[in-house]
Every structure is written in C-alpha cells, then in structure tokens.
Specification:
single chain; mainly beta; 3 domains; 2 helices
Amino acid sequence: MTSQKLPSRGTFYLKNLSYSKYMVIALLLFLGCATAQNQDSASSIAPVELQCEYLQEPLGIDVEQPRLSWKLEATNPNKRGQAQTAYRILVASSEKLLAGGIGDMWDSGQVKSDQSQLVNYGGKPLSSGMRCYWKVQVRDERRALSAWSKPARWSMGMMDPSEWSAKWIGSDQKFAQVKKLPPEGNYLSDPWLRKVITLKEKPGWAAIHVASVGYHELYVNGKKVTDDVLSPNVADHTKRARYVTYEITDHLQAGRNVIGLWLGTSWSIYPLYKSDDKPQTPIVIAQANIEMSNGKSRRLITDETWKIHPSPNVLLGTWMFTNFGGEYYDASREMPGWCSPGLDDSDWKQATVYHPKLVLSAEMVEPNRRIREIKPVAVEQVEGEGYHVDMGVNFAGFVELDVKGQPGDIV
C-alpha cells in the first residue's frame, strides 16, 4: 500500500483499491459478529407480574414469611427452550433504596434454581405496618442475565392480636322480623358511622384496617376509597373476622377530615352465625396508622366516640337461603355529604360498643368488584305481580332503575 503526502489533517488516501475493499469487508464482518454476540448475550426471558401471597401488591398481609412469585415472559417469542436457571431477589424498606439496588431487608444473592413460584421470603423479621418494596432478576438457559423486573410492593397488617386497641362498634338497634315497612315497621336500617380527625399537615402515609360482621364500605372526606363491593368476602363468622387494609394517604388533607363507614346488615343476622356474644346488627372494628413527615405516627381507632345514624337503606328478608330478600330504600332519608367534613353531626347518636369473641386475621384474597354492565334481553309485565326482567345470564350484581314520580311515591 502506498500513500500520498499527509495532508494537514492527517488523512490517508488509499491508492490500492482492492486492498481497501478487503479492509471494508473485514470491518463489516467484525461489526456483524459483535452485534450477533450482543444479541446472544441478552436474556431470553424477563420476570413480570410479581405477586406476594398470590396477590399483586397486597396491603396488610399477616404472614411472617411471605411467598413471592413471578411469571417469565419470552423476550423473543419465536425462540424455543427458554428456561430460568437462577434468580436474585432484592427487598428494601423504601423505593429509593430499591431503585439504588440496595436490598436492606433481603438480598437473596444469585440462587441457582428454576423456582419462580412461592419463594419464601428469607430476610429480616417483618413487623406490623411495615412496607416492603421488591424486584427480581433471573438468568436464562444460557446463564444470560435479565434486566431487573419492575418494582412491586406489599405491606404488613396486624401481626400481634395485642396491637389491636380498637373496639367493635355498631347500632343499638337489633334485627327483628316484622312484616311492616318503615317507618311503622322496625326493620333494621343499614347505619352510617363517622369520625372527625384534624391533621396539622397532609400525612406521608396512612392505612386503615377494617373488619366487619356484615358488609362495609369505607369513605374518606365524602369519597368512597376503592371500587370494591360487598366487603369483606364471605367468611364463617362463628370464630373469625377478616380485616381489609386500605391505603388512604391521598384521601387525607391538612385540617379537618372525616372517616366514614357504611355498614350493610347482610351476614350479621345470618341465623347460623348467631351467638350470645354477637348482636343481631352489623358491627365493625377499624384501626388506622397515620404517619406524618416528621416521623411521628397517629393512631385512629373505632370506639364509642364515633357517631352513628340510620341510612336510607334497609334489608328486607332474613338473610337465610330462600329468603335473602331485597332492599327498601327511602330516598327522603338521604343526607348529601354524610361523610363530608362540613356536616353538622350534632344530632347523630354515639356508637354502641360490643365485645364479640372473634379472632382477627387479614383477608388475603381479591376483593369483589363490578366487572361489567349488562342489559335485559326482555322485560315482561306480569298481571298482578309487576314485571319479569330477563337479564339473559346468571349473575350476581346490582340493579339500576330509572323511575319517575313525586316525593313520597312508592315504587
């Protein structure tokens, strides 16, 4: 190879074109091999859909050694034979530590295993109210390392029964089987409960555990906290009650706040759950932990200082098979803003305290939710009986009606 005199910028001009052609080919082959090598070094699988105790980001679990799971997703769906050969789990006490790759609660290290389901947590002891953030990384069949999964979290519930300082509360009215509708009859109204609390600032974190015999809905400052319905899920209330944990951080504000509970009679009057220590009325127990920015915490509990008032809703029937009944709703008893901070509740009664002998444990299952809306396929008027509505499918749900009338009319 010969070259001309070097220009001022130091550029070489090749005269031997055949030699330069081979150099270009060699360079392209090198780049191609490097690209192929990089592609081969990428993991064929990625961990996704992280779960703790079969749930995605559960709140308030009461398992001392939770089990962690994930699914494996192929990065190239056209390939075959992908497999996990090792994993590494990081669990941190904060999102910041986890993002920095620090597992101050648990760093499993590289574990040679194809296990991706129900891996026992093996880190520091977990205590009530603790929040845990975690992620996982895996190696594939060629030992290639995947990227870290998206972060997930779980929180701990009440690990020791002695930590419950809240009381069971409800209405002083008891269920009675009568035939007359309100106001003459003495059917049991589903009650509203509310408690006013004042905070100096918006909290950094707040969660509340709620257990009830009978259904409940949780409200904060006039808004329903979740889209769950018919909570808690059905359980045998002869010995145990399941509590549901709700995060309420974003619902609280600096100043005056109201925590509200709307109870539903339902299983509280189920004859087979009846016992001397349980009243024939819906009851609830709730305990919240509110963490402020200065690190101090405030506890909120249900007790006799809560206010109670009948809602417009009344159960019809005895909540027994073949007679679950329906609902009687008196719209004249509606109270807009019943859970708002501005409501004057001076005419509300104080809640009644009860002492049922029930063990409290976390409800670690998916909640009931509204899935979709269906419309009737046929509506038939039946002489002397009203209307027969055919929804076309067997379902459990709610009925929405558009009605016309005057105040006081009965539909």
